[in-house]
From TrEMBL:
Annotated keywords: Metal-binding, Nucleus, Transcription, Transcription regulation, Zinc, Zinc-finger
Source organism of this protein record: Cuscuta europaea (European dodder)
Record-annotated BED-type domain positions: 18-47
GO cellular component terms listed in the entry, alphabetical order: nucleus
A single GO molecular function term of this UniProt record: DNA binding
Name of the protein this chain belongs to: BED-type domain-containing protein
Amino acid sequence: MANNFSKWKDPNTGNWTATCNWCKKNYSLGISGGYGSATRHLKSKHPVEYAKLGGGTGKQTQISRFANNQQAFGNFSYNDAQNLTGMANLLVEENLPYLFSESLAFRDYAQTCLNPQYRGYSRKMVKKEISRLYGAEKVRLQNYYANFDGRVTVCSDIWEDTCHNLHYLGLTVHYIDNDWHMHKRVLAFREFNDR
């Protein structure tokens, strides 16, 4: 904003004022000195300069999680489908209930700290997405194992779902791929009652 506005304090009112460096129009910034009205002016009257700030494009500057030698900063667009998939993965990996997706506290956190465009998802949407991901992963694994020429180890495990106090008997496969990376996948599981 400093390249687009000159900020000064009005001696008559004591309020901060910003003068647009492009059209010399003055905007009151109020006592707090916030740039709200000045930003709206820039967006409507000087859209090219506003776009240079990263505004108006629906994109946000992001620091790459895995910065490489090429480019550590980039722009990304809000992608609702990608966020829904991310929410589904979060619930599965952290063993959270579907209701977590409707949590107002999480929605406030996401909108305040991560992305103001985040709108949240109903538990029905998340449940449907988890089922879709499960089906896609099942097909992917079936295709992979159909062409796998190595050996696998199959074992059974019993584990407890601490959220619901349920026990499960699972069938797990372990294998080493052609790049010598060890993998394990749960092929099937059923609720197990020891009574």
